[in-house]
Amino acid sequence: MNTLSLRSESDIQTITSLVFKEHDVLSSDREKIRRNASLLRASLLDSLHQLAVVLHLEDQESTLKLRSRIIATGDERVMLEHGLSIPVQCIRIIEFPS
Q: Which label site among 10, 38, 84, 90 has the fewest CB atoms less than 10 Å from its CB?
């Protein structure tokens, strides 16, 4: 599985052309709470150190990895670099730099 970044125009176009599922990729409430906490941590790390994380995303056709900074997070959407946003429900895993 290749990791996309938002440094190239083709990667940005790939992200903007994704068609996300209408249901959440996580099934349990515990997993969803853990994901929301990780997204809050990622946005805090961005505001303090401008650190990028790796998001494991699922759309209707594929699974992919995206390296990006999390600028802000809400209940339904996550704001990424370059003003892009994606639905929270498409994020399966958040990896932090070690």
A: 10
